[in-house]
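Hallway conversation turned thread

IA: we were arguing at lunch whether anyone had actually written out Multicopper oxidase CueO end to end. Turns out nobody had. So, for the record, here is the sequence (509 residues) and right after it the structure tokens. Reply here if something looks off.
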Amino acid sequence: MIRTPRITHALSVDRRGLIKSAGFAAAGFAAFPLAGCKAQDASMLDSTPGSNPLAIPPLQSGEIEQGTRVFRLSLTPGQKEFVPGVASSTIGIDAPYLGPTLEMRRGERVQFHIDNNLAEGATVHWHGFELPAAADGGPHQLIRPGERWSPSFEVRQRASLYWYHSHLERKAGPQVYAGLAAPIYVRDDEEERLDLPSDYGVDDIPLIVQDRVIDGFGRLVYPLSMHTRMMGMRGNRIFVNGTENAVFDAQTGQLRLRILNGSNARFYDFSLEGDRSMQLIASDGGLLDRPHIVRSVRLAPGERAQVIIDLSEGRPLRLLASSPEIAMGMMGGRGMMGRGNSDDASGDVFQILDIRPASSAQRIRVPTQLASLAPTDPSSAVRTRRFVLDMGMMGGGMSINGAAMDMNVINERVPVGQWEIWEIANPSMMAHPFHIHNVQFRVIDRDGRAPPALETGLKDTVIVNPREQVRLLLRFEEHTDPGLPYMYHCHILEHEDAGMMGQFVVVQS
Ligand code: C2O
Ligand code: CU
Ligand code: CU
């Protein structure tokens, strides 16, 4: 069944709003103050599918100063109407909610000046980048209110979609949820030679997909209960670049969609209505070796994919997403914990984007060869490290290798320049997206099986299913610092905040 906004809102908002409000008050959590709210009845929350023009984040290319690309950004408190007429308090980067798409080129030096104009501390992490630990923007690079942080690094990444977001100690979840996240486009010569769609906002579209809990009054809430701590915060409404029921008017015969799962916890299987195919061209860290014809793409929080879709038939297309079941048995929200939060519903299909085609459009031609990637050769590895993800009883003991995140403990010391196998085991009953800072890795196998198309390229975040073991091949190429760590963690932000995170330093070999 297509979960249209009308059905979702009319049937569930009141009931869920009550359930949520109760949990919210009892837990004593106010993630951020909510202002300017007007009571709304459920009927006012209705809107027609595909009725709101998709917001496209402004493209920000900074300014070149003495050969360095300089970005000036400020973290600001904002107000956003997730439901018309009801303002919620948010956080944005030079915007009330989310922020500009930062555009940069491989090989150049970038410099940021980030002012924290919030009333709370924050961090800004460059997800997917190889960079000095001091510039990483993890929990150790706290920007206090009123302070400025000015990291600088050389862009080593291949052209792709990356992102920047809050990584505040224990509070990445609420800050990203409130809006502290935005895309990064890295461009390079390798990709430009291919002539792929790359006209920003025209035929090259970033889609930041985020679910949010909107209560019965139309307000954004972050109801952190025992259930949401365990399953992660999953919303009842879906926003793309902050737009609900988004529609995009295409002007070209093909579109390149760069999809970022920017949700705190929800996994999505993206597909086109009518089971139409898409050409999958890129993973987290850039182009795949060739386009893969796919009918669906699964993305966990933190993961990205790029697809090219064909509009040359001139018929409207609809991008959908369903929520795969990511928990086994009792922990699925249906047994031990009960269905206390029906937002966990898997099997529901969300409408992500309605695409209206151009009146006349020419046929799509994607090159058959995109990039040449080195073969994934595990025999080059000099050692294997093992990471075991655990949730403890009822999600009360989030840990990796038996230890919860401790800012004062370096869990791993990794020599620079050496290939290693990182073996990620998940004995828990829920899937976890494992993310490693400062590297783009390759997926060797899943329980010995070859990885799917999306995982044949470079990745920085990988799904580890319940009872599964995933092997990664990686190497840290430079930036040693024996004192300042990078993070590896589950990218379900509530799991990260609860301690499913560890720290490593890169050291001289
Ligand atoms: Cu996208 Cu450590 O984070
Ligand atoms: Cu990261
Ligand atoms: Cu997790």
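OS: looked through it. The two ends are 55 Å apart (CA to CA).
IA: good, adding that to the notes. The longest strand covers residues 68-83.
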